[in-house]
């Protein structure tokens, strides 16, 4: 793959910011029934606070400066069946000897800034912890990465982009981490490229489904008869009750 890396600095034109402010100025707020909170959607007073925040309380240029403190780049990645996509990413090498290349994949809805707080910790050459060269990409269609122009761009293609990016950066062997949407993508990276390239995979969102007849017939049949234990049911009730109370909903006993 030819060298196509370019440094990236975020610089939104003033005209775009002015356009947003004009749109906010033209906001027409709906009526809201008296005495109602969230039962009929977002309360109007909450919407008014949000609009006011974006109009007068948010300093985009300050945020832009913080974003640009990260070492950002773009690079063209060829994706089989989808042509070339221009991919945006953060890339910070550690000065520590023996640092491990790490591909960090964000979630949904999410973006590359999810890595910002842990980036200095992972790349620091001090302390007794493991040191990493960190790559945090913007997934195609997210942030500043180009979106595919055709249907059918699945987890398999996202995994291909991440893997080819690491190879283009000279990391033939690396580890991967992801949560949420990044969980599915890094799992696919480990599955398709793990035997030769991916030496470890970490996720902060482990997920599994019920047993299948093909994989474990006895466990599958047991699951059909008793899908959940009494402990499972009580745990789900406690979790659902907490979820409902946090959002002001009334708990309805399931039968």
Notes on the protein architecture:
The chain is an alpha/beta fold and 255 residues long. The protein is built from 8 helices and 7 strands; from the N terminus they run βαααβββαβαβαβαα. It has helices spanning 14-25, 44-57, 60-67, 119-123, 155-168, 181-193, 217-225, 230-246; strands spanning 6-7, 72-79, 83-92, 100-105, 132-137, 174-178, 198-203. It has a 7-stranded mixed beta sheet with strand order 1-2-3-5-4-6-7. Helix 5 (155-168) packs across helix 6 (181-193). The longest helix has 17 residues, at 230-246. Mean pLDDT is 88; it is low at 241-255. Keywords: Aromatic hydrocarbons catabolism, Hydrolase. InterPro entries: AB_hydrolase_fold (IPR029058), Epox_hydrolase-like (IPR000639), Epoxide_hydro_N (IPR010497). Residues 6-115 form the Epoxide hydrolase N-terminal domain. Pfam families: EHN (PF06441). Belongs to the peptidase S33 family.
């Amino acid at each position: 793959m030819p060298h196509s890396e370019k440094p990236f600095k975020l610089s939104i034109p003033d005209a775009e910011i002015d356009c947003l402010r004009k749109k906010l100025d033209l906001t027409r707020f709906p009526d809201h029934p008296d005495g109602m909170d969230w039962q009929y959607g977002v309360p109007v007073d909450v919407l008014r606070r949000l609009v006011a925040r974006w109009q007068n309380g948010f300093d985009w240029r300050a945020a832009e400066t913080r974003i640009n403190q990260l070492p950002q780049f773009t690079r063209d990645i060829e994706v089989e069946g989808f042509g070339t996509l221009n991919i945006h990413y953060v890339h910070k090498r550690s000065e520590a000897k023996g640092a491990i290349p790490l591909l960090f994949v964000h979630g949904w809805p999410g973006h590359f800034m999810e890595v910002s707080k842990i980036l200095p910790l992972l790349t620091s050459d001090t302390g007794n912890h493991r040191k990493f060269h960190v790559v945090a990409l913007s997934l195609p269609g997210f942030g500043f990465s180009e979106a595919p122009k055709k249907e059918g761009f699945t987890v398999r293609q996202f995994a291909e982009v991440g893997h080819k990016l690491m190879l283009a950066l000279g990391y033939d062997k690396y580890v991967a981490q992801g949560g949420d949407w990044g969980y599915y993508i890094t799992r696919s990276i480990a599955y398709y490229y793990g035997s030769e390239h991916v030496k470890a995979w970490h996720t902060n969102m482990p997920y599994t489904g019920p047993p299948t007849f093909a994989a474990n017939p006895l466990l599958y049949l047991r699951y059909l008869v008793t899908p959940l234990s009494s402990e499972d049911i009580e745990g789900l009730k406690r979790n659902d009750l907490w979820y409902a109370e946090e959002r002001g909903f009334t708990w309805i006993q399931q039968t």
